[in-house]
Amino acid sequence: MSAPGTLFGVGLGPGDPELMTLKAHRLISAAKVVAYPAPDDGPSFARSIAASIIPPDAREIPIVVPMRLDRYPAKAVYDRAAAKIGEVLSAGQDVVTLCEGDPFFYGSFMYLFERLSGQYPCEIVPGVTSLTACAARLQRPLTARNDVLTVIPGPLADDDIRARIDAAGAVAIMKVGRHLKRLQALLADMGLLQHAGLVERATLPQEVVLPLASVTAETAPYFSMILIYKGDEAWMLPPQSSS
Amino acid sequence: MSAPGTLFGVGLGPGDPELMTLKAHRLISAAKVVAYPAPDDGPSFARSIAASIIPPDAREIPIVVPMRLDRYPAKAVYDRAAAKIGEVLSAGQDVVTLCEGDPFFYGSFMYLFERLSGQYPCEIVPGVTSLTACAARLQRPLTARNDVLTVIPGPLADDDIRARIDAAGAVAIMKVGRHLKRLQALLADMGLLQHAGLVERATLPQEVVLPLASVTAETAPYFSMILIYKGDEAWMLPPQSSS
Questions:
Q1: What ipTM was predicted for this assembly?
Q2: Where does the Tetrapyrrole methylase domain lie (chains A, B) (predicted)?
């Protein structure tokens, strides 16, 4: 009986494949088995970030999670995926799990981790989060000196979001998605609309970077974020440059 | 007169050179001019992360900031550094500025950025932050589902820290340093000492990962962080693995 394999949770960064770490690149390029989350109605975003370096002969284990408004828990899906991955690990083979952003920052990898980390060695490879990728694209520092940063999921109720924004120095609202109009109205009511920027699909070719006040769409993608610069002068779209 | 060069703020990640992004690696490897913060009493941490890939013939501009308890503002230092870097940019040459972690996440790059971004094209390359690197080393998910995350600088007063921890779902306390004993006492008083972990110098060879309750030192390095898992069972040190 061989030693068990290691479960790797590998952060891929926000989307631009060049924002992957060297370590992620090394582990994926040499992987014999890769796992990744995938929706039931299209390609896997995580897989797409790493697609060019997944070895052609690697075994792939997609974890197909139905994409519904109420996304979690998808208990049975993760139970089955953990059982399948556990078999591979028990046979002594490592499994490299591809994770958008960072595995432990609002990621679905935790559902595998909580099922498998007690039985098998695990290693987490951190990645660039959408949080700092969005600040980079908005060209405004996220936090400095002794700022308190609060990261708020957009689905929370207005009263809760309002109180948390009041108390914070720097604010990021994640998972804007279908909450866009409501959040715009709330920030307008708080006098903060001119101090907020929206980033959709940061660092990807389809990226959108806009002052929140100028956004007219009804909804934003799930992968979108509002950053609020409370202390700053009113928002102006930065000049963009790219390399 | 040539077009001006671009000011790059390049995140290097938390310390392990392999946690640099592919983009950071490409930009630094090809740099003609690199700038970086350096203390007046030792080597530059940022430069050390990238040391093996800085071209031998690159011009280096260290930004020497006196390391005092009250570190900022070091206005004159950044005024001079911005003037020197501005000359290089005006001459049409790019400047790659090396930043520990992420340039816009509690970083000193903002002092250059605020002086130069109005006059020259800038590009920010986000990096892996200590926030998720520490969560990775502690082997516990930082945030999930609709958790609100609050990042608190350790130098804040006890009353302020206490109120923010009470209100948050997940908590990170940055810049623990000389505030270690005070923070330990505060968390003990709040009944959270058994739910907290300390990471010093995440991902570096000198890294320390400990349950906060077992830490006996009087102080921690400036680059150290406490993560608090309020909802979890009491803390147990995870089994470590490495690749």
A1: 0.90
A2: 6-210
